Amino acid sequence: MASVQDYKRRIRSVRNTRKITRAMELVAAAKLRRAQTRIEAMRPYANTMRELIAGVGRAAGSVRGLPLLEQRETVETVLVVPLTGDRGLAGAFNAQVMRRSFALGRELEADGKTVRWVAVGKKGRSTLTFRRRELDGAYVGFTDRPVYADAQAVAHRVAELFIAHEVDRVVLVYNTFVSALTQHVTEQEILPISADILETDDEERRDDALRGDFIFEPEPEEILARLLPVYVETQVYRALLESSASEQGARMTAMRNASKNAGELIDRLTLQMNRARQAEITQEILEVVAGADALT
After folding, report:
1. What pTM was estimated for this model as a whole?
2. Predicted confidence (pLDDT) per residue in 227-274, tens digit
3. What is the CATH architecture assignment of 4-22+253-289?
4. What is the DSSP string of the chain?
5. Does 3.40.1380.10 match the CATH number of domain 27-252?
């Protein structure tokens, strides 16, 4: 049986660990609020970008020559881009993204397609490298607080592979933020860009008719060719923000559970320590009584 000093040492260690987990929970909560604010600020920009592309698309005579809109007749190679974090201690946040990514890869390979990989986040890169997957790119060091330039780098690489016909589809796999307790794994195909973004409903068409005709300079086709890469960047940036908020929510929840478990462990160790102390006192009393009896 452990001594009282052993229990005290273990209780002190667990208390120190609980201080760390509580601090990490508070930090994650603060980062989560900032991430939610950035997502809310991003939504109007993304919606306006979609409306702008739809308006220019209607004015364009033809969009067949735009490579990012090209729908391949046969899909032979698919690029999977899992968005993970650079750090752990976030529960199943990273594991569930990689689990879905590998499941998607197996489905595609079962259909006879080739799967290629671009990793975002140190955890995703290390997992893919450990499983001996060849990477077409790895982007790390920013998943905690991504900026638009990070999304540009990722979007430029995947668009480069798509335009060069090295891949026929590009799929992002990431956690969508629902709440601090809930994150849903999402698969989003970002290339080729769906032609649906060039369409609007009848009400929007009537509003455009009331505004009159526009003169485009340069031509609508050229404007659209410049806007589509920005649209891909916007989609990647939005996914990075969702993933960042999900990571902070998952970490906050994980640290809260860890603090709770530490408290329960401290209570159990304290009870065991009191029992050990009581046993030591009882033993000392028995020894004193035995010694007194021996003297009489």
Report:
1. 0.85
2. 899 999 999 999 999 999 999 999 999 999 999 999 999 999 999 999
3. Orthogonal Bundle (1.10)
4. ---HHHHHHHHHHHHHHHHHHHHHHHHHHHHHHHHHHHHHHHHHHHHHHHHHHHHHHHH-S--TT-GGG---SS--EEEEEEB--SS--STTHHHHHHHHHHHHHHHHHHTT-EEEEEEESHHHHHHHHHTTPPEEEEE-S-TTS--HHHHHHHHHHHHHHHHTTS-SEEEEEEEEE--SS-EEEEEEEEESPPGGGG---HHHHHHHHHH-----SS-HHHHHHHHHHHHHHHHHHHHHHHHHHHHHHHHHHHHHHHHHHHHHHHHHHHHHHHHHHHHHHHHHHHHHHHHHHHH-
5. yes
